[in-house]
Amino acid sequence: MKKLLDVITRTMEEAFEKFGYEKSYARVTVSNRPDLCEFQCNGAMALAKKEKKAPIEIAGQLADALSDSMYFEEVSAVKPGFLNLKLAKRFLADYLRQMSQGASDGHYGCEHVEKPMTIMIDYGGPNVAKPLHVGHLRSAVIGESVKRMGIFMGNTMIGDVHMGDWGLQMGLIIAELKNRKPDLPYFISGFSGEYPKEPPFTISELEEIYPTASKKSKEDEQFKEKAMQATLDLQNGNKGYRALWNHIIRVSVDDLKKNYKKLNVSFELWKGESDAQHYIPEMVRRMKEEGYAYVSDGALVVDVMEETDTKEIPPCMILKSDGASLYNTTDLATIVQRMESYHPSEIIYVVDKRQELYFTQVFRCARKTGLVWDDTKLYFLGFGTMNGKDGKPFKTRDGGVMRLETLLSDIETQMYAKIVANQNENQVMDEAEARTAAAKIALAAVKYGDLSNQASKDYVFDVERFTSFEGNTGPYILYSIVRIKSILNKYVQAGRELAGLAVGEAGSESEKALQLELAKFNGVIEGAFAELAPHRLCAYVYDLSNALNHFYHETKILAETDVTKQNSHIALLELTRGVLESCIDVLGFSAPDRM
Ligand code: ARG
After folding, report:
1. What is the pLDDT of residues 252-264, one digit of tens each?
2. Nearest C-alpha to atom 10 of ligand 1 is from which residue?
3. How far apart are CA 105 and CA 318, in angstroms?
4. Of 21, 92, 284, 288, which has the fewest CB atoms closer than 10 Å, so is most exposed?
5. What pTM does this model have?
6. CATH number for the domain including 70?
């Protein structure tokens, strides 16, 4: 379906052309004075200078020309030369009826882009053997939502978790295990048998081993040496270490998958830094041969400064002086791998904004050395820090790093208690239903709390505010959906049918306001994806929920005796439910049936 604004802008253009005015002036926007009108066109003012006429004269001409338009119920010229517009109720109802016809695939008239693209999105970025902590929350939540928006618009989106699975943390674990269990076959040099299928540790052991080893390496120089040597040996193909590494990866990935599943986050690719290593030698060879890479202070670097830079951008380091590869090398090699395997038009990185300079270097280096095509877009979607109420990075009460798992389950427990406390004779849930609902509400609270902020900004993770059923929160959005579901349920229980009902012309201000909000849907999704801005979609679901609740409070629905009116109201509620549920699905959470 055409976007509502495009439809009415087209009509406005026709009116402009009728008088020989240039149509580029005919842009219609949503009114910034909703008390006066719904849409406005300010073109007459700009046009007046060119035409050497009074703006109000032009606006008057246009208003006259549009007075019998099927699209508007009111077009008024207002001094100095505004055109104030109110949409015709019949046209609006027709538009919504057309949207309802697109209910089956959840698209409600939002069309796919004309030229779908293959877009890769690098998000999540967990580090193997370290538990997910809240710092990884933002990347997962924002990335998942951006990916879903892209899919909704018809693109092929490939999400890659890009695990940190190749660095010193692997060597630390191996060195510590060797200390603890030196008899394991992985440590016997020249071992020729088959390594055991079962891992020599569980995830909880692994998660204990890593921090212990990490702490030890800071206090014990000799141990640190061993860990570094183990890292190098692993990277050079030591068979036993490789086998052990495979166990570490498998055990970690299983656990990560479980955690991401709880977050309703999933990845098309489970690649890691290790997968890119294979591409490094050839990449480095070419960079040297083509004269991009040169040795500076022993290290191999590529200059990435550009003439227009106002501040210093340091060269991109490709290899350390000891020949070892680093984070940059891996990210560049990953670009080679991605281009080779998927030829994406665009790669989006959802990473902490403190890594922005680093990515500027990587992107410039990739472009300069021809790792990507000229028209391949590399986009850094940097996010801010999640702070506690004290304004400092979010921590547990005792100052430790809060594990993501703990954070979610704590909120789930709170929500469960709230549901149980809210039970009354009209609503009794069994344990299973209450637990499922609590999990959904907790997830909505956390995800919406994050996504409703512009990604690049820091924000305060305020559990109390995020879990409130009122205000601009996830639970409030769910509550609005549940409210509709409950009405529709009662309607059906009374023996009526939902199928075949159609939205009619609005009979009140609040009804029209709700209809207008619904009609913005396709434009909002398109705009939010174009800007990679889930917060725009959040703002929309909030406005839509408010419009719904306003309408609900002012309108008799189940008690309405005029059947035509009631049918139309029910159809409107059903459409609102559908649009809200499509939106939250794109945001990455879902609503329970009751709460
Ligand atoms: N593992 C990294 C971290 O924890 C994030 C990875 C981001 N993605 C990338 N392609 N560098 O900081």
Report:
1. 999 999 999 999 9
2. 331
3. 47
4. 288
5. 0.95
6. 3.30.1360.70
